[in-house]
Amino acid sequence: MADITYMPDNKVVIASDGANLREKALQNGVSIYTFGATLMNCGGVGQCATCVVEVLEGMENLSPRTDFEQRRLAKRPDSYRLACQTIVNGKVVVETKPSRKKKK
Description:
alpha+beta
């Protein structure tokens, strides 16, 4: 089982291993999109890169970054992921709608 904690809401969601981070957020009423992205997102098919989250804990419990994530998040820290492309296999804490930090 995977415990997913969505910050800043501090909402804990219990999921099966292999769950999609975006789908679990939406199923449990967690907002992962900014206002504009709520209106104009790709629906989770990995094309728009609007479901960015920052992994605060448990990076080792997530699937590796996809090629699309590598390209779209190249200028962001390695802790940033696209929720629609991320599979959870254990305990993780993520921040939704993180600030636009540059890679160091």
